[in-house]
Amino acid sequence: MNSKNKTREITIGYVFCDRKLGGDEKAFLNLARKKKLNFIMFNISKEINERAIEAKAAKCDIIFNNSAEEYATEFVKTLEELGKKVIDSSRCFYYSEDKWMFFLKCKRAHVPTPKTNLLSSNIREAMKDVHAFNQWPIIIKKIDGCQGDFVKKADNPQQAEKIIKKFWPDKGRDPIIIQEFIKSKSYRVTAIGNKIVQTATKDATGWKSTGVYQKIHHKFKVDKKLKRIVNQVLRVSRINVCGIDFLKKDGKWLVIEVNAVPSFDFFLSEREKLIGKVLDLLVKKVKSSSEYKRKIARLEN
After folding, report:
1. pTM of the model
2. Contact 65, 86 (CB under 8 A)
3. pLDDT digits over 77-132, tens only?
4. Is domain 115-180 given the CATH code 3.30.43.10 in the classification?
5. What number does CATH give the domain 3-87+271-300?
6. Can you tell me the distance from the alpha carbon of 204 to that of 162, in angstroms, rounded to the nearest whole number?
């Protein structure tokens, strides 16, 4: 059996969340077809019962999650419980996309980050933490969230207290961190399979330059220091496909966060190139698995 036929047998699963196919979905479908890959889509915005999930998952050699929705984490865990390998795993959402855990991992690995503190869940103690931080303005964040949600800037303790109380409704108090405010554009490095594949500045008119607030994108060069930090972050996070956000303070790079579901559309002309690299990575993961090798051996006998 030739290598072309072997590639035909690979089936990629794809998790997304939308009422209709977007640019990423269309590009994945088109490129999968060109690469002779079977492609099965899981749209978590629609109802999918457990039997349907299990039946579809059983056909997949590997599954790629391209949804940052909170429900996607549960869906990925479900797929993993069914014995499926998902890129990226549910683990990364708990230990890397958790902003406090990511800060601690970076600190232990000596990766430069902004000054960061975890607040007490008691409002009085939290305000003591804020006063002790003694650095204004400050950034106040929930430990999870995407697209710049639950990220606010406070210029003084009074504003900080209002923001914290707003983040904490009557029921439930999600963990909150505070960080030093750094006036800088945001720099995004996208990595696939431990390789830097794209850079983009994320500029905006206001103080936020991440998520939906970004307006203008330009490429930038990766210097030796930044490349070394990127490699450190990749080792710390162990995420296969990610976007890493940086700021600059006094000419030095600082890591803000890592995202396991990066945008592929900073530059539309490069979307298919990036998605092609993702598919190549998935195929490589499948072909290196013992299960796939056993499957090919059975077919050859």
Report:
1. 0.89
2. yes
3. 999 999 999 999 998 877 777 899 999 999 999 999 999 999 999 999 999 999 99
4. no
5. 3.40.50.2300
6. 25
